[in-house]
Amino acid sequence: MNLKFKKLLCVLSMLWVAQLSIHAQTTKEVVEIKVPGTLQKVIDDLESSRFESLTIKGGLNAVDIAYLTSGKNKVAMIETLDLSDVTLIPSDESYKTIRVGSAPGGAYGYSYNIYYISNTYKTFTESRSNGLGGSNVYDHIFCNDLSGAFYGNSSFEKIILPKSLTNIGEYIFSGNSYNTTLKDVILPQNAKIIGKQAFKDCRSLEIVNLPSSLITIESQAFYYTAVRNMSLPSTVRKIGDGAFNGSAIKSINLDNVESIGKEAFAYAVNLECDINLNKLDTIQYGTFRGTNIASIILSPHLKIIGECAFNGTKNAYPKFKELIFPESLERIGSSAFSDCRNVTDVTIPNSIQQIGAYAFYGTPWIESIRSEDGITYIANIAYKYDSSYKHEGDTFSFREGTIAISDGFGYAFPNELKENIKTLQLPESLLEIGNEVFSGFKLLGEVKLPSSLKRIGQKAFSECPKFWCTLPKSLETLEYQAFYNCSTLSTVTLPENLRFIGGEVFSNSAVGTVYIYSRSLQYQLLNWELGVTKSIFGNHSSLKKAIIGPQVTRLYDNIFYNTSTLKTVEFEDPENSELAYIGENCFSGTSTLSAPLTFKNFPTKLTHIGKYAFGGCKFNSEPKLEFVKYLGSEAFTFCSGFESIVIPESVDTIGASVFGYCPDLRFVEYNAKNSFPLLEYRGTSFGGNYFKSAFIFERCDSLQAVTIGPKVNKIPYCMFIGCRELKEVTFRPRNISSRSTGEDAERLSIGESAFTGCLNLNDIHLPLGTDSIGAEAFSSTGLITINIPSSSHYLGNLVFDWCNSLNAIYFNSIEPPAFDGPLTNRERPFAQKLSIYVPEESYDLYQSQSDLWMYNVVGIPTSAIEDILSPQQKASIISVYDINGRLAFDRWINRTKGVYIIKMSDGSVRKVRR
Fold first, then answer.
1. Which residue did the predictor score with more confidence, 591 or 240?
2. E strands along 222-272, which residues?
């Protein structure tokens, strides 16, 4: 054997041994976790350096789940994972954080889900500044269904989930990018719910056997998965929006399903089976669009078929030829069956009330229907106009019995017809006029609307410069820009039954006065308007006056938003007005400094006033809030025309800056006792990001006197900040027993910076029951002396900073309160002369406080009245004052603790501490 051959043989032997070694380390491992939280250690201790299959038994907590789904170290090469005998153990740690979208409400930032293991499902939300002028929102979710656990994981090919799971959690296998490895998932047999986006974009997932107990498949659960054959258990009742959108599913039994969401099977181009929908009363938007379904059976109780429900696409369209609609059907949405290229026969029931634009576009059936005077009718609905028809004369009419004119009916109107029609004759049977039906009729004059009419669609009469009408009492819906640019329409009465009204309905019209008699008027937001704030009258309206009838109960969001020409709003019969609800932005943006919106006869029974409802408006009398429960942020900010306001005890929710910057406000009575659940982002003013009820009366420059009710338990953060003219703060008598030490008093906390910048506030008598005083609560005020009640247990940092006139602080409590820092900045000149008066018996305790070391601490003898007046003394008490010189005889008689000045009948004056 030559040397070269020997060397080659040696190399091959070494490679073979190495291969055997590698193969030996590629094993199936079974581990049992006896102590939750030790999974990583147990796996690290295994002899195998690489294994393709791992079976885990025992209890796993969040730390274990986080490691298992990390894709790091030894778990990185696992292809098959068996968790069937795993029990989830609750713990305080989270196991996954995923980004699920943008922050709600249009804030610049993102929304995150943070998951924990818990036997009880619960959630809470927090917001944090992202340092970029916005905030991120974090939903903390406690669950026991492995929600989000394998989110974004791309290593496992097969996973057997724990038998103990009763639900399959949301986002459990979905991810930011396509998951191309996961092929097989075995679900627990007791699972009832598959959460939203559970398998979204698992494009290699081919095998999923649904458990026989399953009830709900939530939104986008199998969105764009490769599952082709799936047996839907008879127990399933609900399928969410987009649940199988774009999936490879070929056949599915929906016999027992009672609810199917929007686009649930849209673009599932392989879906070619027969579909039985006998349980559905509504078929949602786009449910089966872009599929090749063979036939459909509709429920005898079906009422609504949504837009694009079955419409075909370039690559897929339904194969059925016949449509038999049940007698219960009322509405067929736009494009519902468009491009269903095989439909030749349709049975329309007498119950039909609305057919949307292009509902049967591209079907042989609709092309076979002959028009009458240019109008194609489906049952009693004017469906479309024949553009090839030559209309004669200047009058346009519909046949008697017509109940609806479809959306888009006028899309085919030739310009010649639009420029010649002067008269429109509508039958009394008409219930609705669809979108853009008569838009652009240049010569159309007065139109008598039928007394049965319920809906006027988007832009129905827009760009009709000579048009005018009276809205019938039957009208329920008036949609977006219905009368846009109708320059002859000068006065409008919104009838009592009108419920929904769209944006810019009368914009660029001549409407100068509107009478609102609609009992409950709600702004109608269109799908494409999401995230856009609109108003009824638009930014360029000629509206000058609005009169609100007494029967109106609700004015919803944005009704008059940015209607800058509006000058007067008058409420008819305010004492009998039923108006209880005014929504967000209802009158906001209507005023300018030179021409504010003025309110007359403000209603008296309001219970809800939304955010920014009256921003910048002017009142001719004080707004009456006697029954108000909800006051949204900045509801009356920059409002003028009233000198006083009473916040009643009924208020339980109050937002930031409700009465901020009100220039005429001089007197406030505040009685709200539990008014702080409304969390509002306040930006970065005053040194930080705030999500608090705060700044309620900020910078009311004329505010002079405030009365605080006896049941108020908190003066919020920055409540009176910057109220420079505030001189008098009166606390009404609180619930205090005759010999109270403060423990029996109604509790009161004073928030941070509550009175900051009240330069003329020289004196304030804090009531017994004052429990805490927040940081800088009285900074930059004109206080000379102040008495801290014995009930006070906490003082925040720099409570009296920049109080340049302050010379004495009296503490009444034997036990010093907790100090969160010095009372003032030590470098302030006045701090050097500030005296702290404390009970003599507690002198050493106060003197030892590190936050009081720089002040002059003085002990005052404690003495009862018996110690002052001996039986031999002939002098009697003439009057009793507190340390601020106010009469306090009642408090003396009731033996209320504090420091008093007593004037005797012999002319002497005594300073006494009780």
1. 240
2. 238-239, 259-260
CA distances from 814 to 368, 765, 845, 864 (A): 97, 19, 9, 15
Classify residue 824: in a domain, yes or no.
yes
Full 3-state SS string of 453-513: CCEECCCCCCCCCCCECCCCCCCCEECCCCCCCCCCCCEEEECCCCCEEECCCCCCCCCCE
The residue whose two tokens read 């009456």 is 624
* Minimum mean pLDDT range among 92-106, 321-335, 810-824, 875-889: 875-889
For every residue of 559-591, which 3-state class applies, written as one string? CCCCCCCCCEEEECCHHHCCCCEECCCCCCCCC
Whole-angstrom distance, CA of residue 521 vs CA of residue 558: 11
Tell the burial category of 385 from Cβ atoms under 10 Å away from its Cβ (0-12, 13-18, 19+): buried
pLDDT (average), residues 321-342: 96
Q: Are 19 and 43 in contact (CB under 8 A)?
A: no
Which domain range does residue 107 map to? 91-143
Picking from 143, 161, 180, the residue at the C-terminal end of a domain is 143
The CA distances from residue 92 to 140, 341, 734, in Å, are 12, 58, 42
Counting DSSP H helices and E strands in the chain, the numbers are 8, 60
Question: Exposed e or buried b for every residue in 779-814, given b needs 16+ CB within 10 A?
Answer: bbbbbebbbbbbbbbebbbbbbbbbeebebbbbbbe
Query: Nearest 5°: CA angle at 882, between 880 and 883?
Result: 130
Please count the other Cβ atoms lying within 10 Å of the Cβ belonging to residue 551. Answer: 17
- Could you tell me which of 322, 271, 335, 275 has the C-alpha nearest to residue 299? 275
AA letter at 754: A
Say yes or no: 844 and 784 in one domain.
yes
Task: Compute the Cα dihedral for 611, 613, 619, 624 and give only its sign.
Answer: negative
Quick one: 765 and 840 in the same domain? yes
Residues in Cβ contact with 250 at an 8 Å cutoff, skipping those fewer than 6 apart: 228, 229, 270, 271, 272, 273
226: number of CA atoms within 13 Å, CB side? 14
Query: Which pLDDT score, from 0 to 100, does residue 242 have?
Result: 97
Asked whether residue 669 is assigned to any structural domain, the reply reads no
Predicted model pTM: 0.74
528/506 Cα distance (integer angstroms): 19
DSSP at 779? T
907 and 841, same structural domain?
no
pLDDT at 313 over 50: yes
Q: Identify the H or E element spanning 19.
A: helix 3-25
Residue 9 lies in a domain: no
Report the number of distinct structural domains present in the chain. Answer: 3
- Write the CB contacts of 24 (distance below 8 Å, at least 6 apart in sequence): none
Q: Which two tokens stand for residue 282?
A: 């509504």
Least confident among 627-636, 800-809, 823-832: 823-832
Could you report the per-residue pLDDT of 680-737, keeping only the tens digit for each?
Answer: 434 433 333 343 457 999 999 999 999 999 999 999 989 999 999 999 999 988 765 4
CATH number at residue 776: 3.80.10.10
Q: How many Cβ atoms from other residues are within 10 Å of residue 320's Cβ?
A: 18
CB 165 within 8 A of CB 191: yes
Mean pLDDT in residue range 840-860: 89
Helices (H), 261-399: 364-367
Cβ count near 415 (within 10 Å): 9
Question: How many Å apart are CA 641 and CA 660, to the nearest integer?
Answer: 14
d(CA 330, CA 589): 40
Tens digit of each residue's pLDDT (9 = 90 or more) over 273-300: 999 999 999 999 999 999 999 999 999 9
The answer to the question of residue 841 being in a domain is: yes
Residue ranges with strand state E in 61-93: 80-88
Q: Which of 263, 277, 329 is nearest to 302 (CA)?
A: 329
Say how many residues make up the chain. Answer: 914
Q: What is the Cα–Cα distance from 22 to 20, expressed in whole angstroms?
A: 5
Nearest to 199 by CA among 162, 226, 172: 172
